[in-house]
Amino acid sequence: MKLWQLSAREGIRDTLARYAHCADSGRFAELATLFTEDGVLEIDGRVPLAGRAAILAFLTSTKTSLAAGAMQPFIRHHLSSIRIDIENTDAAQAASYFLAITHRGPDHWGRYRDQLVQVDERWLFRHRRVRVDGRAPQGWSATRTDSL
Fold it and tell me: What are the Cα distances from residue 122, in Å, to 13, 44, 75, 85, 90?
């Protein structure tokens, strides 16, 4: 493996981690900058969100939904089994599993499938597909009206 490939892998891991940390702390404007200007967030069962403004608007609504009826709401995303496939110096794909835990306990889980590109030495999502494989029956994700 070449040095640029190792650097690319670390940059991609950093983007994946920043996404989770920004989502968990409600820093959605920062999270939206992890996507290219025309980046797409696709969540199974929903119309794909194209562009940073659409992504930001959707994520802001999730914060309102999570906070509804909770004394101290929180969410934590845990990533595992991260696989990164480097296509070239400026493009890569990643696959990972996630588990989201809220103040109620384990909530929903699934997979991320990502297409990333390098822009100004940062790795950004060109396309992130979220597939939710399961939900806790009484969890936040299962009971929200605009379901993930």
Answer: 11, 27, 26, 16, 10
d(CA 14, CA 115): 15
Look at the block and give the residue holding tokens 């009484």. 138
User: What confidence tens digit (pLDDT) does each residue in 17-45 have?
Assistant: 999 999 998 899 999 999 999 999 999 88
Check whether 75 has a pLDDT greater than 70.
yes
Backbone angles phi, psi at 37, to 5 degrees: -55, -40
Beta bridge partner(s), residue 105? 102
Q: Any bridge partners for residue 49, and if so which? A: 41
Residues for the chain: how many in total? 148
Give the global pTM: 0.89
**In this structure, are residues 107 and 75 in contact, taking their beta carbons and an 8 Å threshold?**
yes
CA atoms within 13 A of residue 4's CA, in its CB half-sphere: 9
* pLDDT digit string, tens, across residues 112-130: 999 999 999 999 999 999 9
**Beta strands 49-50 and 75-88, pairing class:** unpaired
List CB contacts of 86: < 8 A, sequence separation 6 or more: 5, 8, 9, 92
